[in-house]
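Below is a filled-in request sheet from our internal design queue. Each sheet records the structural input a requester submitted and the sequence that came back. We keep these sheets so that new team members can see what a complete request looks like end to end.

REQUESTER: design group, bay 2
PRIORITY: normal
MODE: inverse folding
CHAIN LENGTH: 415
BACKBONE (tokenized):
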């Protein structure tokens, strides 16, 4: 395809107005990379001049039934672009989930079954709607165009990309050089994700930094199909509450958006003062100028806890309510003074005398007895305010309050 044909839609130069520059600033807030910025400015200018919304695409594979704050980094960006008047496409990868995204993997990722995908997809969009405006969101499933493609269409699609280009991908290169198997079906994943962009005629696709290769494939395939190439926007991967690794359920450093308000607020208050600023940039809807002013006040001696409280309340209010955010702060302050929350689960158990590990597990205070033992070793278990460390303890019949860690409480009646 000639360069003239590729850029035929950009032959008309539209004015770069103040609104276009404001939209560019919103686009770039907190982003890792915008490719190609000049092309995106041209798209924004054309959109404003012709009053035609741009098509903004985000694809998520429903590999788990719930969403954590790490996922909302790109959802927040989608909402910002949605508020500018553009069309947001929330794409559920029900077809690509059956392949399994190899991004960042050092081994073949097991594909999900149709049944697993259906269960996860049920709650995915419901949770995403806590960030996006459902009335202005186009929801699509990529099985719409991937299933009808068939074997013949798949072969024709595969002919548009070379193995050499696939092996430019970092995780494929490492596995190939290390002698770690790469299944042929894994090459299909970036191709199918790229074909989504063709099917949807997207102007911009969002993703985490680990998705850059897949996003670029979409850009190249659009050119192959005679479309104007999409721009791509990568967002940083949110660091988890441990301050080390990216937020992940497997790392147990996540904050789920469906978690109880008190738990959500408590976890946000536990992050480091330095990490708080990254959370403000990527998760808060406060203007950047206001965040910069907060930093100045902290540098001048103000307690960063004041702003961490504001962050925690903003996030809790978004996913629950303002009233829940206020109550979470009260609960947090009460616990910080050594108090027990007013609203804790009440559990009735039998089998006294019961081993402490089993008691904690049966009361759903820990997921396993091994986790119970770990908390006991670390001094993280209290019975009626007294720390317990004896792993062989047999708890007699009675009613008492047990605390595990800073945020897990239960009033237990054991008989």
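RETURNED SEQUENCE:
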């Amino acid at each position: 395809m000639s360069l003239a044909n590729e850029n035929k839609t950009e032959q008309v130069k539209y004015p770069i107005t103040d609104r276009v520059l404001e939209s560019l600033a919103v686009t770039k807030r907190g982003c890792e990379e915008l490719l190609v910025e000049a092309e995106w400015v041209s798209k924004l200018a054309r959109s404003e001049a012709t009053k035609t919304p741009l098509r903004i695409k985000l694809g998520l594979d429903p590999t788990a039934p719930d969403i954590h704050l790490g996922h909302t980094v790109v959802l927040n960006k989608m909402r910002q672009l949605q508020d500018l008047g553009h069309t947001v496409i929330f794409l559920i990868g029900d077809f690509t989930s059956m392949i399994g995204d190899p991004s960042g993997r050092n081994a073949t990722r097991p594909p999900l079954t149709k049944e697993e995908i259906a269960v996860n997809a049920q709650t995915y969009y419901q949770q995403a709607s806590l960030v996006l405006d459902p009335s202005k969101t186009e929801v699509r499933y990529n099985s719409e165009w991937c299933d009808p493609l068939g074997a013949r269409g798949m072969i024709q699609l595969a002919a548009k990309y070379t193995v050499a280009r696939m092996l430019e991908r970092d995780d494929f290169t490492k596995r190939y050089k290390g002698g770690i198997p790469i299944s042929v079906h894994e090459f299909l994943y970036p191709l199918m994700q790229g074909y989504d962009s063709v099917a949807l005629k997207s102007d911009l696709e969002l993703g985490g930094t680990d998705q850059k290769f897949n996003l670029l494939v979409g850009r190249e395939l659009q050119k192959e199909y005679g479309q104007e190439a999409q721009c791509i926007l990568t967002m940083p991967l949110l660091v988890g509450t441990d301050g080390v690794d990216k937020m992940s359920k497997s790392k147990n450093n996540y904050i789920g958006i469906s978690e109880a308000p008190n738990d959500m607020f408590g976890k946000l208050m536990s992050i480091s003062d330095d990490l708080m600023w990254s959370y403000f940039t990527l998760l808060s809807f406060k203007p950047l100028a206001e965040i910069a002013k907060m930093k100045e006040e902290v540098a001048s001696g103000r307690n960063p806890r004041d702003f961490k409280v504001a962050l925690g309340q903003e996030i809790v209010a978004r996913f629950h309510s303002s009233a829940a955010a206020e109550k979470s702060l009260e609960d947090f302050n009460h616990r910080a003074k050594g108090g027990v929350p007013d609203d804790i689960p009440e559990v009735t158990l039998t089998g006294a005398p019961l081993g402490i590990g089993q008691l904690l597990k049966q009361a759903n205070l820990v997921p396993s007895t091994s986790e119970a033992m770990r908390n006991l070793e670390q001094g993280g278990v209290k019975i009626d305010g007294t720390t317990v460390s004896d792993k062989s303890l047999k708890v007699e019949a009675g009613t008492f309050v047990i605390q595990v860690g800073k945020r897990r409480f239960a009033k237990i009646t054991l008989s």
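SHEET NOTES:
- The first helix runs from residue 3 to 6.
- The domain at 3-235 is CATH 3.40.50.620 (Rossmann fold).
FILED BY: M.R.
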